[in-house]
Design brief:
By secondary structure, this protein is mainly α. The protein contains nine helices and three strands; from the N terminus they run H-H-E-E-E-H-H-H-H-H-H-H.
Amino acid sequence: MWLATGVLVVGASWRPAEAVGLVETDLTLPELGWGSALLHRTRPSVGKQWTDFGEAHDDRGLKNRPAEDVRRVPIPPHLVAVLREHLATFGPADDGRLFCSEKGSVVPSSTYYRVWQEARLLALPPAVAASPLASRPYDLRHSALSTWLNAGVDPTEVAERAGNSVEVLLGRYAKRLDGRQEVANRRIEDLLREYE
């Protein structure tokens, strides 16, 4: 269950608070091909003293947008399969949310942080796991957006999917990806050869 939340952050670039606020009726999950999600709700962890109902998670609209705003986000086929499997295995929570704790409440950010720390050790080479690279679950969003930009996806499209302006995208998320220096060197060499 916790892995699916992380996969959403990486594959769809959703913020963790968007993923934990997702409900089944917001999804289109076809048998084959791309799906989509209508994002309109977040469940950020803010602390009990800061919510109207004494819960640790607030119930808000999308970050930096009017409360009624909705963002349609494409879901890649491999992520559609993960979500379909997740729903078949666990089903939705009583209120329709895809992800919940064992007691049915919102997944605490400390839980997916702890699970990500364990997953990093399994997924990354030891030297990388010992580094600060991708040390927080939110870093997966940075990685997803940087990967899309490095793949040549138009920055306007990446910004739209991420729910950011192009300025924020390029200022905050456009990072050099680990291991991509050789690819960049080849592209620069190919370009320079054209001028010979």
